[in-house]
Amino acid sequence: DGGITQSPKYLFRKEGQNVTLSCEQNLNHDAMYWYRQDPGQGLRLIYYSQIVNDFQKGDIAEGYSVSREKKESFPLTVTSAQKNPTAFYLCASSTFVHEQFFGPGTRLTVL
Amino acid sequence: QKEVEQDPGPLSVPEGAIVSLNCTYSNSAFQYFMWYRQYSRKGPELLMYTYSSGNKEDGRFTAQVDKSSKYISLFIRDSQPSDSATYLCAMNRGSARQLTFGSGTQLTVLP
Lengths: 111, 111
What we know:
Chain A is an all-beta fold. Chain A has strands at about 5, 10-15, 20-25, 30-35, 45-50, 55, 65, 75-80, 85-95, 100, 105-110.
């Protein structure tokens, strides 16, 4: 089955800790995206990547980092510099920007 | 002011009703208009997209774009309890590599 997987489903972070969220796709899409969703605020773009070894900052990149070493994988690290990381994180991939397919999401909670 | 405005609801309708969901936008450069459906604690799924103005129909769903008024709509005919979800509109300038999302409208269809 083709699709996007995200892991873990739930993640808990202590203050000052870095955590990494996994995103894998087998749709052969070139572009991948990371969004953050907070209640009542829709989706906000953190980072996106159009090709391997290249990525661009989105609207809210501060406190986050990414890598794109393989076409299938686009992990997101939430660093200790992100002061309010509790949110629902969504990964997406696409061939065309207007046809993005989303994974099931990771819910991150700061303890 | 946000580039895309969407009434958050919540909106409750009886089963079988026609539902109208709407977004307004301020950026006249938007060319692609998308509607996503998001069930609770899940990733969004693309329902349909429209390029420029006009209507597009897919089963019980109709998307409508009025660029002169900067207003888009999604109509759901014969609504079902399974349509209960949050509906997100999204837009793209065509040349841009990212989407701009509305905040979502929460819909409940009562049996």
